[in-house]
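Re: duplicated header lines in exported structure tokens

Our pipeline writes sequence and tokens for each protein into one text file. With two proteins the header for the second block appears twice in some exports. Here is an export where it did not happen, for reference. First protein block:
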Amino acid sequence: MLLVPAGPFTMGTDSGGQEDEHPAHAVTLAAFYLDRTEVTNAQWSECVAAQACPPKSDSVRAEHPDFNGPYQPVTGISWDGARNYCEWRGKRLPREAEFEKAARDSDDRRFAWGNDPPTHQRTVFATGHPEDVGSHPAGRGPYGHDDLAGNVWEWMQDEYDPYAYRRPSAGQGTPGKCSEIMEALDELRRGHKQGYTGSNPIPEECEHSIRGGAYNYDADGLRATNRVHHPGRFRIPMLGARCARDAP
């Protein structure tokens, strides 16, 4: 694990992206540790062997045999499974704000490596499958983490709140409660604001945030401010995890 130091950073943006990425605002976080890489198939298998995690999705395993390499990121796992894995390791899932700070530092960079556009030397995108974790050191984030942009999406601890950046708790990087989130989603539906939360449909339930982009995404989708969401039960081929831990 690599340390992300305490202090403020700018979360979100005032221009570009989707409306749920606005506005840019200062967030102050305590220090924390974040795994250098995404969880691999080999690491997940250890948890399965210990009977602490379920196997990855049978359909992902069968339909994507080229995703099963030991050092490729595990995919086809639910939010509950990802949480259980991290707890088994004595860790937890990262918060959205933590992930964005690990990718952006305090210089408001657009991508984990800086402001230059994605290339295949830096990351895995616009292709058909993930690669071994840590295969693109040129794309490391400001604190040394690999694959914060591209390869696979990663489950976050937080429930997805489209109004998170407007709330009184925005300065702590904390979303609203599920009841508040549902009120926000109902308001978006009444206002016919489908695009507010991106290309996915406006959720009908409290979904979980995912971050980082994936192998099948285009270059702009790898921006550090991009916010995406899925139901926690989803076990899909482009979604995995990495773990975090509070610093002493």
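Second protein block, exported in the same file:
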Amino acid sequence: MVVAAGNRRWISHAVLVCIAIAQPLVYAVATETGAEQKARVQRIENAVLAPCCYTEAVSRHQSEVAVKMRIEIAKWVAEGRTDQEILDTYVRQYGSKVLVDPRTIPGWWTPWIPWLIAILGVVFGFWILNRWRNKPLPAGLPSSSPDTPELPDFDDEE
């Protein structure tokens, strides 16, 4: 197909105009705002455990390894890596136990259990003491009233 020189120029201008219009739109869709990147960094930091002890998320842990991982995560998010790529990198490096298992995150009620047990234990202790103090003496035992004569001391009979 033969295209005239004037038509080629018109087509090339149309393509350039389309690229010029589409480039900012593609760039706006492809880039994240600072707030979105910060939210992604937080989400990833909360999804990865510190490999020194595997008990606390990187976002809260204060070891050198956790600080290094926070820096790496922020750098990788800024470079444009996906969340899955970052998580896969840490799984390859430390194994799958580095990922936070959502089934192991304690519920809101977990910190209250020891306090509830302690309070119930104190209430039970007071109930037992009160019951013990108010228990009546058996009928066969002498009471300590002033009318009761004193019993002789057996050590005096020598």
